Amino acid sequence: MLPERRGFTSRSSVRMLAALLFILHWIQPGHGQTCTEGFVYDRRARQCIDVDECRTLPDACRGDMRCVNQNGGYLCIPRSLYNQPYRPETPDLPEPAYPDPSLGFPDTFVPAVPRSVEPSYPRVRTTAPCILGYTLAEDGTCNDIDECETNSHHCNPTQVCINTAGGYTCSCTEGYWLIGGQCQDIDECRYGYCQQLCANVPGSYSCSCNPGFILNPDSRTCQDVDECNDEPCSHGCFNTYGSFMCNCDEGFELAADGTSCIDLDECSFSEFLCQHRCVNTPGSFSCVCPPGYYVYEDGRSCEDFNECDTGNNTCTTAQVCFNFQGGFTCLNPLQCHSPYIEVSDNQCMCSAENPACRDQPFTILYRHMDLSSGRSVPADIFQMQATTRYPGAFYIFQIKSGNDGREFYMRQTSNVSATLVLSRPIKGPKEVVLDLEMVTVNNVINFRGSSIIRLTIFVSEHPF
Ligand SMILES: [Ca+2]
Ligand SMILES: [Ca+2]
Ligand SMILES: [Ca+2]
Ligand SMILES: [Ca+2]
């Protein structure tokens, strides 16, 4: 850092001529006062004062040097010492990037020792009582100059000036750092300041979170929202990282909205779910049975109420309750019509001695049975058998009446027995009264007689 003497360079003859005229002008008035190099005579103050070469010389320092005025001279020092670019080593500290004062600032330089000057009149004080950056107070002490306050700093307009003891620093405000001598916004997003979403703004930044997260108090990281706390699900809720899931109780399925549960229509799954009828219910289903039935333990089958066993019937004491599938009936006491007489509570007889009984069946036996509608065919449904066997006799079994729909036929199973067979499906509800006849033929004694079983069949409405 050598002081460069520019006063007498012959770079520009015009400038030299101007300087010469300037000097002459000062000499001419005849005050008889001359100042040494670096000073000019101030008429008002009547003393030699320092020339600020940095202001008066258009190109006091060359190149990348900066001019610093000194008492009786000036200094050229590298500009780099004024603005030390400062870059934080790690990007995660959005701290103000204060330049290190130790790197040196103009006002913290030790002032150059003033050159000795020739004694002159008036004598110029060449030694300041305080070092540079301080000013002499009235009490004789040296006080720090607040360059920021007095606006005598050299911070550039993007910087802020911070006064220090004996000097000052130029700094960037928070959120900016010094790049190329200018305070430029820190792009915090580029350095991953935010965990999830980041928006850079001049001098700052703001973090936000993806849906399902909330910003932590540190304003940078995000944490999962436990959505289940707000009970968004109709039924069950499971919190997940960044979201949540709903599930539904048995018998329900998740709706398209993902939160509500809608009933499953189990009845639509299969028509065999219930024996009779399926009724969908919220979260379940139930089987119902027609009147006269109840739902069995399996929940789907229908079982006939036995109204006769349970006493849940309307039969009088004189009547006999007869239960069948899906209902019951009250059988009136047997009434045998003349010439028949009653021989038991379900049998009438026509006496052989009675002439009116000739060509009439000897006995009529009353029987009742029930039959399910739609029973698969063929089906053996009733047995009949001769109870009295006469030597030399044989028996013929036949349906004498009641088989108009031809649903039945009689199949002889032995010499003395036969089976009533259902040969066509029969649909209830209806009562079918069949007269099943057993004809006894004895050619030895030339006898032919018959007995009747009057079979009443209660065909149920339902196939169960
Ligand atoms: Ca920023
Ligand atoms: Ca969650
Ligand atoms: Ca259901
Ligand atoms: Ca019944």
TrEMBL record:
Gene3D superfamilies: Laminin. Keywords: Calcium, Disulfide bond, EGF-like domain, Extracellular matrix, Glycoprotein, Repeat, Secreted, Signal. It comes from the Eukaryota. It is found in: Secreted, Extracellular space, Extracellular matrix. One of its GO terms (molecular function) is calcium ion binding. Residues 144-184, 185-223, 224-262, 263-303 form the EGF-like domain. The keyword Calcium applies. One of its GO terms (cellular component) is extracellular space. Transmembrane segments: none annotated. InterPro entries: cEGF, EGF, EGF-like_Ca-bd_dom, EGF-type_Asp/Asn_hydroxyl_site, EGF_Ca-bd_CS, Fibulin_C, Growth_fac_rcpt_cys_sf, Nephronectin_domain. It holds the Pfam family cEGF. This is Developmental arteries and neural crest EGF-like protein. It comes from Labrus bergylta.
